[in-house]
Amino acid sequence: MEFTQAAGPNPLDAGRVVTKPIDRIDGPLKVSGRAPYAYEYHQDFPNAAYGFVLGSSVPKGRIASLDTKAAEAMPGVLLVLTHANTPKMSDEGEHNAPQLQGAEIKQYEQAVAFVVAETFEQARAAARAVKVTYTEAKGAYDLAAVQDKGEPVKSAPDSTVGDFDKAFSAAPVTVDVTYTTPDQSHAMMEPHASVAKWDGDKLTVYTANQMIHWAHDGIAGTLGIPKTKVRVQSAYVGGGFGSKLFIYSDPILAAVAAQKLGRPVKVALTRPQIFNHTNHRPATIQRIRLGAGPDGRITAMGHDTVSGNQEGGEVENAADQTKLLYAGENRLIRTRLSELDLPKGGAMRAPGEAVGLLALECAMDELAEKTGVDPVELRIRNDIQYDPEKGPSRSFSSRHLVECLRTGAERFGWSKRAAKPGTVRDGQWLVGMGVASGFRGNLVMPSGARVKLDREGVVTVETQMTDIGTGSYTILGQVAAEMMGLPIEKVRVKLGDSDFPLSSGSGGSWGANSASAGVFAACEALRDAVAQKAGFNTKDVTFADGNVASGGRSRSLAEVAGPDGVTVEAKAEFGDLTKKFAQASFAGHFCEVGVDAHTGEIRVRRMLSVCSAGRIINPKTSRNQCLGGMTMGIGAALMEEQVVDERFGGFINHDLAEYVVPVHADIPDLDVVFLDETDDKSSWIKAKGVGELGICGVGAAVANAVYNATGIRIRDYPLTLDKLLPRLPTA
Amino acid sequence: MPVSFTVNGQATSLTLDPRVTLLDALREHMALTGSKKGCDHGQCGACTVMVNGQRINSCLTLAVMHEGDEVTTIEGLGSPENLHPMQAAFVKHDGFQCGYCTPGQICSSVAVLKEIEAGIPSHVTADLDQVAFSDAEVRERMSGNICRCAAYPNIVAAIRDVHDHA
Q1: What is the CA A547 to chain-centroid distance, rounded?
Q2: Which residues contact A676 (CB under 8 A, 6 or more apart)?
Q3: Chain B residues lying within 8 Å of A636, measured CB to CB
Q4: Measured by CB atoms within 10 angstroms of the end CB, which terminus of chain A is less buried, N or C?
């Protein structure tokens, strides 16, 4: 079923189950500790041996010598895999992750050995007994040092409109500032983990992953076996934020070892390994140039960003939102990628916007101050209802940024903000307010589902879609319940299994809208099949209260299903509406901070996000997604930073005590408001992404509030107190 | 080494490698996987259980040190069909997303209410003789339990709800 034109009225519009704040249907399992995560399937994998990954202690070079004899002789050790005894793997597929293929080292903590033993303790001890020496090669680890070597990338073409240089130099008011954002880590709570077993030539892997079909491709492709011989499962995922879009050493080495040993093998990465062995959000250096009239209307919009990655790695697309967020007839937006030998960079929650808005939305604050226009008003003045690069022919599918900002300003009490920074005091606290726009492009992905109606009148949904905390179980259940005229209690949802129909997976905020569209399509097919089986040869049927009815006749779904039930499968595919229309979610973020006048400690006192993201399928789970994004945005603004240690070519603060993330005491009650809207060009669901919207812009609202409180503008994230302290006014 | 303790009311005897943490004894030797391993360093709180009524990070203590102790894990608090009031409040207030830190958050929450009731002060207690429930007390005492999904406001709401209806 292809989505090619704006959605008309459909059964979801009834809003009987969809749009209701229903408790998570997986809640009782999770709060009672019964929801099993990848490492926890004791019953399905009896007698599993324990693997332990040994990572490289150098970032670049070659293994000079590798001695496993002592390790192999240790108690309980069953196998030590190294590049000397690991089968050849393929690196040809996009999602492949070959391991132990040679002596070359490309990354700190790259797997150099895999020790398998009867117990975890034995494997860990033996891994320490593997003796490895290296020949180190010189690498590049400092982005600032290679920023001028950045190359253009195909995924982020330059945007050149009008004559930027001329307009910028002619503008009455200009801002020319450079912001830097550090490397950041997903730091999801569940470490990457996998367990693998073979039944003859068939491999089963339970792994912590967001994208079942990518993991399926990657595992089968790396090992060189047909996908039909591999089953991947990931029913419960302990957070991802992008880290689990990809596979790393754990499923591959578990599979190889399990085959060699003829018994299941399980492995979890240790917390310290994760920070360097897996990927992270790359640091950026961003120069923003804004040229405007005295009224704040932008005439020249310039954004140059550079990030680093290993050869073949992706760029951090930090200027992406700048192409669409504000007006400006003359535009120059350029994205560059430099080569670095740090651990591989990758997608983390709202790749691009999350750090791009940290820079752009502070630069807007600087423009507001220079023009004397209120920061909320400045953003409203520069609102644009179409793609500023393509022109009026490409309008937004829906865009309510102005309403977000106005609603937020009113609700937050923005009018009480003192325009002059450093003038509001509450005891020891300097108090300030900040605002930022939120923007996240709306992505859609093909997504399929199978739905079964059984003789009890229960509908079961099966799809590869994952629930990484996002609420997929619940919202897909709501969509099916709404479509079939059932209460949520009569719907079962099964996720995260490669035996189910291929889905969008969880990434890029595309999951809720795309996977729901897949379930919608499958339920449309089920409605047709049930109506036909019930003997209603018409489209004019209604599904309500567990019955299907037409022309005054009504039959229960259970009865129509009969002993055999009814099973159908369908797939949602998307035409060119995301090309014809610019599509995005929007937000207005408001923050109040207190800055300790003596110590520079920053405390977030209040925060509000007003969000516009199409239909909100479940306000309870959606609000929670926003809380999470807002909190991660506070983390980005105030504390999160992977510190590069150039001696070792990796991140030195590689645990949860030193990579600091927000805890309970950092986060006050946060306020979230959703505008009541639908976007009929996103899908039949009329919803857009919400999982990343919260993080997009929030950190800039924090930084702008800090400026308003203190008069100190810090352009180097995170805003730690050591950067504030020397410049604080004497108290 | 042999060790005997009680877990969720059931007497248990195990023979364990002395390096086995209490967390791994529960997870790997007793298949009680509700207690989670988030960091194995005492930095995240996902492994929080109660030992003799006090919450501890079960990854920071060796199993063989617990001879004769009474251990309560998330599984001992309630089951999906018969949730503990704190577990039910977490569902009602959506005090979690991915669920991985949740057992630790809930074990900590139950213990925090008891600590406040017992008059044990915290860093934010202004008057050490007047320990009373407040959101600030909860946030301070819960700060050893990281939730990267950041359901923090909802977790505080759940704890407040249980406190108000106790």
Answers
A1: 39
A2: none
A3: none
A4: C
* Chain B CA closest to residue A235: B98
Is B101 in contact with A189 (Cβ distance < 8 A)? yes
Best probe of the B interface among A664, A692, A695, by most B CBs < 10 A, is: A664
Determine the CATH number of domain A2-35+444-577: 3.30.365.10
Reported confidence tier of residue A538, pLDDT bands at 50, 70, 90: confident
| pLDDT confidence bin for A640, thresholds 50/70/90 | very high
* A366 given a catalytic annotation: no
pLDDT class for A358, splitting at 50, 70, 90? very high
Collect all residues of chain A within an 8 Å Cβ-Cβ radius of residue B24: 120-121
| Interchain contact, A469 vs B46, CB within 8 Å | no
User: Which among A241, A271, A670 has the least Cβ separation from residue B40?
Assistant: A271
Helix (H) or strand (E) segment spanning residue A146: helix A143-146
Domains in chain B: boundaries: 2-77, 85-164
Strands (E), A454-601: 459-463, 491-495, 542-544, 547-550, 553-556, 566-574, 584-596
Of the candidates A268, A108, A206, A155, the one whose C-alpha atom is nearest the C-alpha of residue A642 is A108
Q: Which of B108, B149, B155, B160 to mutate to test the interface with A (most CBs of A within 10 A)?
A: B149
Helical spans, DSSP H, in A372-453: 375-381, 401-412
User: What is A394-442+583-727's CATH number?
Assistant: 3.30.365.10
Q: Which residues pair with A608 in a beta bridge?
A: A590, A671
A265-268 vs A49-55, strand pairing mode: parallel
pLDDT category of residue A731 using cuts at 50, 70 and 90: low
- Six-digit token string for B153: 């406001």
In this complex, do B139 and A23 lie within 8 Å of one another by their Cβ atoms?
no
CB-based contact A669 B79, cutoff 8 Å? no
Tell if the CB–CB gap between B152 and A631 is shorter than 8 Å.
Answer: yes
Within a 10 A sphere around the Cβ of A696, how many other Cβ atoms? Answer: 34
Spell out a b/e string for A356-376, using b for 16 or more CB atoms within 10 Å of the CB, else e.
bbbbbbbbbbbbbbbbebbbb
**How many whole angstroms separate alpha carbon A76 and alpha carbon A121?**
9
At residue A539 the predicted structure's pLDDT band, cuts being 50, 70 and 90, is confident
The overall longest dimension of chain B from CA atoms, in Å, is: 47
> Is B97's pLDDT higher than 70?
yes
CB A701 within 8 A of CB A590: yes
Q: Is the pLDDT of residue A255 over 60?
A: yes
Residue in A24, A37, A663 closest to B94 by CB: A24
Kindly provide the b/e burial profile for residues A526-565, where b requires at least 16 CB atoms within 10 angstroms of the residue's own CB. Answer: bbebbbebbebeeeebebeebbbbbeeeebebbebbeeeb
Q: What is the pLDDT of residue A216?
A: 98
**CATH class (in words) of the domain with range B2-77:** alpha beta
From chain A, pick out residues whose CB is under 8 angstroms from the CB of B150. Answer: 627-628, 630-632, 662, 667
Q: What is the mean pLDDT of chain A?
A: 97
Ordered by start, the domain boundaries in chain A are: 2-35+444-577, 394-442+583-727
Q: Is a pLDDT exceeding 90 seen at residue B46?
A: yes
Residue A470's closest CA among A436, A435, A503? A503
**Do A28 and B101 count as a contact with CB atoms less than 8 A apart?**
no
Catalytic residue among A109, A462, A524, A692: A692
Which two three-digit tokens encode residue A86? 């690991």
pLDDT in tens, A614-624: 999 999 999 99
Architecture of domain B85-164: Orthogonal Bundle (1.10)
Does residue A718 have a cis bond before it (omega within 30 degrees)? yes
- CB-nearest partner of B154 from A33, A271, A624: A624
Whole-number Å distance between alpha carbons of A715 and A411: 29
Integer Cα distance of A443 and A437 in angstroms: 19
